[in-house]
Specification:
The chain is mainly alpha-helical. It has one domain. It contains 14 helices and no strands. Helix 2 runs antiparallel to helix 9 and helix 3 crosses helix 9. It starts with a helix and ends in a 30-residue tail after the last helix. The C terminus is likely disordered.
Length: 323
């Protein structure tokens, strides 16, 4: 069990690093090289293709008809609305404001997990969420006041806020599905449904995007990173982490993204180390530690979603059993 939790944290460290680097890269692409809508659809189409290709190399899993409804809801919350609102908001506001706003995610994940999975809301968990959020906000607030460029927009901030709430719900809602299906099976259906829903709306934004019509090396490399690393790889790793650690803990890693971005900036000479950054880092890590140490729900306690964690093995009897 401890080994599984350790693996879950390693997976989320990798996801956090990738996402932390992707925020400034995505911001630099928008809206000159591609619109938020075009980037959203590009990520969805690329991931759908990549996961369906990957599914050819793993044992086939049967998906009962009733579970497709859950895949559809997970697709709306984890892909279509989450990515769409975040990129639309990021295009209107600053990466600094966006980084501050996403620190509310763990709070909502804790609330959703309490209602849907009957995860206890403990003093340690509340303390961890608040301490971690304080560290992240302190870090980003300091960057906001030491930067020469300030940019924010209320509508954009509200969109990022909505994205954080939806993603928190997705982490809780999809956890039972991660217990029943492999990450590839889960993601291939989620991104397929997202492709069907989003393509008619945004296909024109992709076709007319300058990054595709007039490609240059730097924006193309940024797009490749966003599509492959920040979409395919991260959405492959997150369900693997969900199988091992709790939704609130996973959501706490959002608070590490501003810290990662700051460390990357320091390493390439775009920022400098300060006492504020050290204090922020200590608060963020303390928050994550407190949440991971909080009491798990007792054995036998099941929430409304837990009944979908059990079920017959979905691997096709004609294929090898997935290990």
């Amino acid at each position: 069990m401890a080994k599984d939790r350790r693996a879950g944290h390693i997976l989320m460290w990798a996801v956090t690093l990738i996402f932390g680097i992707n925020i400034p890269l995505s911001k630099s692409l928008l809206p000159v090289w591609i619109s938020p809508e075009g980037l959203t659809l590009s990520r969805i189409l690329f991931a759908a293709s990549a996961f369906w290709i990957a599914s050819l190399f793993i044992p086939r899993e049967k998906v009962p008809f009733k579970d497709h409804g859950f895949f559809l809801i997970a697709s709306l919350c984890g892909v279509s609305f989450n990515q769409g609102l975040f990129l639309l908001g990021l295009n209107m506001t600053s990466p600094i404001d966006a980084s501050i706003i996403i620190t509310c995610g763990p709070l909502f994940a804790m609330i959703f997990a309490a209602f849907l999975l009957k995860e206890p809301i403990t003093f340690l968990k509340i303390s961890g969420v608040l301490v971690g959020a304080t560290g992240a906000i302190l870090l980003v607030y300091n960057a906001h006041h030491t930067s020469a460029v300030h940019s924010s927009n209320l509508v954009g901030n509200l969109m990022v806020f909505g994205s954080s709430i939806i993603y928190a719900f997705y982490l809780v809602f999809s956890k039972p599905l991660t217990q029943r299906y492999s990450p590839v099976t889960l993601m291939k259906w989620m991104f397929l449904y997202a492709s069907v829903m989003v393509t008619p709306l945004y296909i024109g934004k992709v076709i007319s995007a300058p990054v595709y019509l007039h490609p240059e090396v730097t924006p193309v490399l940024q797009m490749m990173y966003t599509l492959f690393m920040a979409t395919f790889i991260t959405y492959l790793l997150i369900p693997m982490a969900q199988q091992r650690i709790r939704p609130t803990t996973i959501s706490m890693y959002n608070n590490l993204q501003p810290l990662v971005a700051s460390l990357v900036a320091i390493s390439i000479g775009m920022d400098h180390f300060s006492v504020i950054k050290l204090i922020s880092a200590v608060l963020i890590f303390t928050g994550v530690y407190l949440v991971t140490r909080s009491k798990a729900k007792p054995e036998g306690i099941k929430g409304p979603l837990d009944k979908w964690e059990t079920g017959e093995n979905n691997v096709d009897e004609t294929e090898s059993v997935r290990k």
